[in-house]
Each structure stands twice: as C-alpha cells, then as structure tokens.
Task: structure prediction
Amino acid sequence: MSNIIIDEASLDSLRERVKPYMNEKRYLHTLGVERECEALGKLLLPEKVNKLRAAALLHDITKMLSLEKQLKLCALFGIIYRKGDIMSPKLFHAKTASELIKRDFPEYADEEIVSAVRWHTTGRRGMTAFESIVYLADYIEDTRTFPECVELRSFFWDSYEKDKSDLDAIFLKTMIRSFDCTINGLVSESAPIDNDTVDARNYFLESFWENSNEVHQS
Ligand SMILES: [Fe+2]
Result:
C-alpha cells in the first residue's frame, strides 16, 4: 500500500487499536511521539504529517513483550538475528513491530511506515527524512525526562527558534548529538553498539560536513 490516506478519524481509531498492546506509561509515551512527529513533520515533511503520526502510534507495539516472546515472533516472521543480538534485547522490538504491523494493521503496512518502525531504535546509514523524524520524535518527545532527552529537545527547538532559516543544519546537528549520546551511554554501560547505529552517526556527520562545505563554496 503506497498511497495510504490517513485522516483525523483514522488516527483516532488507530490510537484506540494500539492501546491494548501497551501499558499506560508506554501509551503516554506513544502519544508523546505522535505529538512530536506532528510538530517535527510540520517543519520538515509537511505533506506526510498524518502518516508520521500513524508510524508513531505503531512504533512500540511490541515493546512490552519479553525476550522469549520477541524470539517467538522472530521465528514466526522469519526475522534473522545473530546470537550476540540477545545482549541487546531492546533492539528486537523494532524488528518485530515492523512485521506485526503487516499482520495486525495491514492497512498501515505502508513501506515508509514499516521502515520507520524498523529503524526507529538503531537508525541506519542513509535514513530517510521520514525515518529520521520518527527516530528523533521517539528520543525527544515531551514525556521523556532523562536529562539527555530534555537537553536534546531544548537544543533542537531553541536552535530553531533562534534561526528558523537554518533548519536543515539544526536537524543534522540534533541527529548527530542523539547518536553521540546513545553511543556514549552504551560505552559507559559496556554494552554492545549496533553497527547500524555507528553507520547512522557517521552518515549524519558526513551529511553535515557536506552541507557546510557546500555553504562555504557558494
Ligand atoms: Fe518509543
């Protein structure tokens, strides 16, 4: 399904349908991601705001499941994983949710929605704007209280308020900071770092460098 039409009524109904998949805290976070996707989408991808909101509502539908259940879904959907992935159990929900959308919410199994859900935790090299918005909204939505999340939310919105003409550079800088924070956190916990996260950070660093060079050359 590539030309899905999503209006307020379908979002209202989707909001009710995802509720049984999560506890109250996760649901409030999900609503926060929807709000943040709406705000970021209006600036960065205005023609796809409602589709971003739908991806937000669906992004954590398997987050509450135990590792055992995640592995059962992997077997059911033919999701391939490495033995070492079990050291980072949080990574499974992005893979299983993207497959569960196809089974439980087939009318939302749009390529962009499925891939934004698939990459919302690790990021990846060459992330689309749609994927990046869902990823960042998940990180900075307003129910998050971790100092890094609060700081990054202020960094993006304050920088944008200061200079609205510099949106692309501000967005790239925010993405780089988010991956720096994630990687620093993982190193401090001696946890493994997914290769896609390293690739995503380097991709945004390179994009920022290319953008700055273009500015200097012109
Ligand atoms: Fe989330």
